[in-house]
Amino acid sequence: MKLHLGGFHDCTAPSSDKIFIKATGGGAYKFADLFKEKLSVSLDKEDEMECLVTGANFLLKAVHQEAFTYLDGQKEFAQIDPNDLYPYLLVNIGSGVSMIKVDGDGKFERVSGTSLGGGTFWGLGRLLTKCKNFDELLELSHQGNNRVIDMLVGDIYGGTDYAKIGLSATTIASSFGKAISDNKELVDYKPEDISRSLLRMISNNIGQISYLNALRFGLKRIFFAGFFIRGHAYTMDTISVAVNFWSKGEAEAMFLRHEGFLGALGAFMSYEKQCLDGLTVNKIPQRFPISVSSAGNKIYCSMNGKSNGNGNESIECTVYGT
Ligand SMILES: Nc1ncnc2c1ncn2[C@@H]1O[C@H](COP(=O)(O)OP(=O)(O)OP(=O)(O)O)[C@@H](O)[C@H]1O
Ligand SMILES: CC(C)(CO)[C@@H](O)C(=O)NCCC(=O)O
């Protein structure tokens, strides 16, 4: 990846510590020695939650049409006023899930989390379906029918709604609940149905806990991010339905176009906090449509890739240090 050609070059440091790059998350700790050994790159660790928030705040303020809602296959971009952004709940779905109340730049609190996250979907999915990779598992969920395995309200109530408490016949009463009474073995279920039920179970649960936390702190906006989502329509749809269902239509789930890279972006932006005396920012060559330069205590970075027409083009930004 030519990582050793990027990052910061500290001319004043001893030769073994010359190149360092910002990194965040568990990997910045877990793989620090490996980076040093294989690439002679030192990882400059930045706090994971701080980076997530910095990345999210930056994107929400600087990037036009960053946030959108997604319901019934309809994507609608949200108008975010940068002066009226806070407070909001940021839900980052990686292997596990973190829920962070964001009150301003650098002002945040991790208020909750759940261990039932992307790792649970992928881990259980791998065991139950024998899928070899995440994309295959997700792809399968498109064709599946969760009603085969999930126990619905209608299954319990002889096909009818339980209208008195607001539950329709199609509401899931118990995820995977049908498997207890079907007298079937794992091989009798189609992998696509398992995948679909798993995705709904995980996404519903995250949507529900998120809404409850938003309610707990009176937060109107919930932004969902993390590599688990990856713009996947059914995942977003399920999370949106869960938030809508539990909030009785009061709250709305929002998603971010650059959802999988908040932490990395936040770590990247933390270069601007660094004293630049004696440091040179190296340009990361051709692979990445990015250029970084510095002057005094300012960093200018531009990511100016060409539009690919699918809305995923690189962002263009200028970051000023203070
Ligand atoms: N191609 C992929 N391969 C593996 N997992 C993927 C892939 N695409 C999306 N995912 C999902 O992303 C999750 C990991 O996301 P991410 O890399 O953001 O988390 P992490 O940094 O490992 O977790 P945490 O934030 O809990 O430390 C996986 O558990 C899986 O659900
Ligand atoms: C441990 C982290 C923060 C690592 O990214 C993440 O995986 C997480 O938020 N897990 C959920 C832990 C919990 O709050 O139950």
From TrEMBL:
Record GO cellular component, one term: cytosol
Pathway membership: Cofactor biosynthesis; coenzyme A biosynthesis; CoA from (R)-pantothenate: step 1/5
CDD domains: ASKHA_NBD_PanK-II_Pank4
Reactions it catalyzes: (R)-pantothenate + ATP = (R)-4'-phosphopantothenate + ADP + H(+)
EC number(s) stated in the UniProt entry for this protein: 2.7.1.33
Any one GO biological process: coenzyme A biosynthetic process
Name of the protein in its database record: pantothenate kinase
